[in-house]
Amino acid sequence: MSDLSDLKTTPLTDWHEAHGGKMVPYAGYAMPVQYEGVLAEHAAVREKVGLFDITHMGEIYVTGPGAEAWLDSLITNRISGAAHGKITYTAMCKEDGGVLDDMLIYHLADEHWLVVCNAANHAKISGWLTEHCPADGVALNDASFDTALIAVQGPDSRELLCRLGHLAGVTVEVEGLDFYNCFTIDGPGGQWIVSRTGYTGEHGYELYLPNDDSLAIWEELIAKGADLGVAPIGLAARDTLRFEVCYCLYGHELAEDITPLEAGIGWAMRLKKKEFVGKEFLAAQKAAGIPRKLICLEMTGRGIARQGAKVLYEGQEVGEVTSGTFSPTLKKALALALVQSDVPEGELAVDVRGRSIECKTTAFPFLSARTKGDPRAERTLP
Amino acid sequence: MVPDDRKYTQEHEWVQMEGDVGTVGVTDFAANEMGDVVFVELPEVGSEFSQGDTVGTIESVKAVADLFLPVSGEVVEINETVVDSPELVNTESLDDGWLFKVKLTEPEELDKLMDAAAYGELTGG
Questions:
Q1: Chain A 229-258, residues with CB within 8 Å of chain B CB atoms
Q2: Tens digit of pLDDT for each residue in A238-292?
């Protein structure tokens, strides 16, 4: 096994190792890639409830009278006017429209915002914010290494969180918390944020906790969820879960040489905003025609297309796979691919290690999300 | 842990001989390392290969691994069941999860493969 001793740990690292977590290096952290097995963990989240340690994510507080307008000048989406407790998904771009990262921005209170970015981009975003931060009116506080993050995801996640009840003197009430909203409470070690968000396409929550409070909560969730079938979930299933509902993953569907319009997250862009970094380029790209598009592929030949595999149309290379795997829920090989925007729907092929494997375009997303409404709603399967 | 009724390769495959035909599969160690296997591609029956040739692939949710031919010969049978139920590679790696059978053309190559004790040492017991 590779040496993990130089990597950062989370308050839950010892727990993972003691409970069968197979630890791998990820964004500078030793994180569990799986416990029981990716298929079982994936099914636990789709059908019951799973817990994820995603403490590696970056959390940067942005405060002050200038915070709102300044953040709005850096992101594609709009946060001004967001009510307290409202969460906004957005991209942050360079001048050339390439995506630096995708992120969530929480409006916690007047002049108090929280930026949650990907672990792999934490240093880059922290640096970007620091570099662009005005001298007056905005303060940055990078709390990433002090903040633990636990995701509770699956149709039984609400039931499980409701069972927390009083915990270390804190009442956790998630009934009535709408999708992409949050509230804060005072925990023993400091402020907690309870957020109705996630990366699985299921009803779910994310709990931001001071490091010292996280192990007790994790163990309590495991204990109180035993009869619900709660399971710890590794990074491998986190990826297959987000893939089936076609959520972008930075380094795959998003990158510095891919624009939000190409990646299909133009819905999180407000070109009517006065200005934001990248606006000029993105407005021009939208007007001139977007050169590439993200498409959903189902393999019809035998084989699994992985990231980097070339997509072929009538024998010509027209793009490449950004993510591809065997879908545990749909039980077939699927792929997301970034291709020239003039590629028609229908039959295509993917070069899988030198062999041309047939595939066809299919509807987006592969699997519909159940983040809002009935957590056990019948899925519309393609 | 490692059965001594067969030979092993550095690539974590096993060969169990019956007459001049060897049954080939992957070891428990390899199956555990791969995680849940979801796709198996096997060589065509009747094809002939040399020792070390790539003859197929095994894919888990996250990873792709090549299958190598442990001993030179002709593929005489493949396990169709494992093609339809790749999870057998995880659950029955040493029995029903076998992959294909090869009729050896160079039986002396077997001597170069590891016995159970050596393979156990390689994989940390």
A1: 236, 239-240
A2: 999 999 999 999 999 999 999 999 999 999 999 999 999 999 999 999 999 999 9
Whether B38 and A326 lie within 8 Å, measured CB to CB: yes
Topology of domain A13-55+145-243, CATH: Gyrase A; domain 2 (3.30.1360)
- List, for residues B26-36, the tens digit of each pLDDT value: 999 999 999 99
Nearest alpha carbon to residue B59 among B51, B67, B49, B70: B67
Angstroms from A38 CA to nearest CA on chain B: 7
Edge-to-edge, what's the strand order for the sheet holding A99-109? A87-93, A99-109, A112-117, A58-63, A139-142
Chain B closest-CA separation from residue A5 CA (Å) = 20
* CATH numeric code, A291-366+378-382: 2.40.30.110
* Domain ranges within chain B, ordered by starting residue: 7-105
d(CA B19, CA B87): 29
ipTM over 0.90: no
Smallest CA–CA distance, residue B122 to chain A, in Å, is 13
pLDDT at A306 over 70: yes
As a CATH number, domain A58-135 is 3.30.70.1400
Contact A220, A261 (CB under 8 A): no
Q: Which of A303, A326, A353 sits opposite B61 (nearest CB)?
A: A326
Contacts of A39 in chain B (CB under 8 A): 36, 38, 61
Q: Which fold has domain B7-105?
A: OB fold (Dihydrolipoamide Acetyltransferase, E2P) (2.40.50)
Q: Which helix (H) or strand (E) holds A95?
A: none
What are A179-231's pLDDT values in tens digits?
Answer: 999 999 988 899 999 999 999 999 999 999 999 999 999 999 999 999 999 99
As a whole number, mean pLDDT of residues A92-101 equals 98
The beta-carbon neighbor of B36 closest among A37, A302, A353 is A37
Domain-wise residue ranges, chain A: 13-55+145-243, 58-135, 291-366+378-382
Residue B73, beta-bridge partner list = B49, B104
pLDDT in tens, B35-68: 999 999 999 999 999 999 999 999 999 899 999 9
Q: How many residues does chain A have?
A: 382
User: What order do you get walking across the sheet with A231-232 strand by strand?
Assistant: A182-187, A190-195, A204-210, A147-153, A50-53, A231-232
Q: Is the pLDDT of residue A1 over 60?
A: no
